[in-house]
Every structure is written in C-alpha cells, then in structure tokens.
Predict the structure of Chloride channel protein.
Amino acid sequence: MDFTMRRRALAWRQQLDQPLRFNPFVFSKIFLLWVAVGIVGGLIAGLYWTVLELLLHGLGWVEGVYVIPLMGAAGLLAGLIIHRLGDPGEMDLIVNNIRFKGGRLEPGNNPAMVLSSLLCIASGGSAGPEAPLVQVVGSTGTWIARKLRIRGEDLRSLSIAGMAAAFTALFGAPLGGTLFALEILHHKHVTEYYQALMPALVASCSSYVVFVLITHIGIGPTWSFPVLGTPTLNDSFYAVLYGLAGTAVGWLFIFLVRRLRKSFELAAVPIYVKMLVGGLIVGTIAYFVPLSRYFSHDQLQMLLEKPFTLQVLLGLLAAKLLAIAFTVTSGWRGGFIIPLFFVGAVTGLILDQLFPGQNLALILVSCMAAINACVTRTPISTAVLLATMTGFHQFIPIMFASLTGFFLAPKTPLINAQLGRPE
C-alpha cells in the first residue's frame, strides 16, 4: 500500500513539474467540427434572416382587407411547393428523428422547408423562423457527419449542435439556445442527451458571433421591458401566482391546437388546399386584429409601448391564440415559441389591468415563462432565454414561474415525440 501511494505521489509531482501547455482537446478534430457546425449555422441563419427581412419589407405595404387574399395566395403557393418538393415535417418530426432515428435530420427536406417557411412567415403567419432554422441547420450537422463518416452518438451530437446553433442565432442567447435544443427533445429527462451539451454550447457560441456579424443585430435584450423594482423574496411567490394564469392560457392553446389539428386531419384534401384555407382564416383574423399578424418579434415591443384597454387586450389574446393555432395546424411552416411569448405578455397585461399596482415586469415575464414551459416542456432554457431577451435579470422568479408551467402542464405533451417511441 505504501509503495502504491508513493508511486501515485511521484506521478502527481511529475505532472506538476511539466511546463504549461494548451489543452490538446481544443485542437482536436471533434472540437473543430463543433466550431464548424456553429459557423455554418450562423451563416445559414444570417442569410435566412436577411432574406426574411427583405420579404417582410417587400410585403409590408399590404394592409387592410388586402391581407386576406395575400395570405391565402401565400398559403396556396407554399402548399404547392411542399406538394411538389415533399413535406419537410415540423418540430414533432425533428424531435422524433433525433430521439429514435439516430439523430439523423434529412438535408433533402431543406429546399421545401426554406421556401415554404419564408412565404408563410413573411406574409404574416403567426409562426416564427425557429423551427425552419432548426431543421436546416440541424440537418447540416447531419450532412457534415455523414461526409466525414461519423456515426453513433457523435452524429447525434452534431445534429443537436446544429439545432442549438439555430436556436441561438434567433434568440441571441447561446446558453439558452443550447439548453433549449436539449430540453425540447424530452419532456422528462433532459440529462438523456447530456453528452451533447458541450458540442451544442460550442456551436452556439460560434453561430452567435457569425449571425451578429452578418445581421448587425445588437447583443442587448431583444425587448425593452419595464424596469423591475427592488427584488424581494415575495417576488418568487407572486411569480408562481402569475404563472398559474400563464399555465391556464397554455392549456387553452394546447386544447385549440388539438381540436383544430383533428379537424384538418379529417379533411382528405391536398396540403395546398389546407394551407390556402389556413391562410384565408389567419388573414381574416389579421384584418380585424392587425397586431395578431406575424410572429410577434417586433409586435411584442409595440405591445409594451402603447396603452391598451382591457377589452382590446382580451380580444387580442383570443385573436392571437386562434391565429397561432390555425397557422400551425393548417400546414403553415414555422415555430410558435416567440408567438407564445407574445401571448404570455398579453396575459400579463390583462392581469395588470385586473389587479393594478403590481410589479408589471414581474407579471409579464412570469406569464411568458409559464405558457412557454407548459407548451414546450422546456423550463430551464425558457428561464435563461427570457432573462437574456428581456433584460429581466432576477433569474429566480422566472424559474419559479417556468417550473409552475412545466409541472402543471397536461399529461400528454403537445409535441408528441417528446413522450416516447411512436407505435
């Protein structure tokens, strides 16, 4: 025993006496691949965002009743693209492929996803670019892995790294984007893909830098939220109460999506007909309630800057919930994370009208956290994302509200692939 102890001590001293050197892992092939996935992801996201902004400005002059035929035509054209090039799937398919298909996301789906999603988002659909970017950048990670003959968990990790890079580019939060890419894959065991944490984080940081350089988007908060007063312990308890309201709205959204999804599935008609109908319905909603149009990246700031009556807020809440639900169930491409943040903000403003004199910033961020955690089952990343995007740096109350939405969510998740292996 003494001899073994002496040998270990000698080996330890020899290690201490060695000159300082760089960690060889930094120069390893796999680390450089993570960086490469992030750089490519940032380039793709930056290009996508640039084209999307051009389309938004190009179609922004269409207002009033003309929004209805515009969105109907956009739905029809996007549907014809999907009918011709193939269905690229939605977030459910992405999660299913990562979990049960070895992490392989098919690059062949990208042309249909890019073209259809740009049309859907730019014309005013209530869904954002997060899902299309996740598919495109995640499948790029798969493509790189295949070209280099990488298999197994390393392939899955590169696909997840691509997903994280896409989330980060859109949200501007490397840590939040990384955790979101891991959490959304499973509604119970986030640690199932812990081995992909470092690849996702490295790719996210690379993607973030490239995306900001291309788009010139600032690195501060996305939205200018009201300033929080002096934090107290009671803020966490209030956050739970406000989170209950956000969770209730989350239940309502899930109910609407499931009912509408069944209705559209019953109709044995081509995808372009469903998307035409969806576009006409969402366009009609946007005509009567203009603030419900688009995926709410800019509209949320408008919501914070202007005063609204209780009646207007209630109407906006109903209109936005219906707009998102019809968008995602009629085949229109896009994600619902940022639109749900908008719904959470509207819910918070309604609470502020009903119970004046409370901390508005706390109400808003609590409702936003709860509804998103309820629908997407991502409590940790939601808290990190909101702290980054709103500048609300009191992390603990956001976490309490986010956990409220997560634990009080319906038993069956909206994203079915989060639950388990399909039959």
Summary: The chain is about 70% helix and 0% strand. The chain has a mean pLDDT of 85.
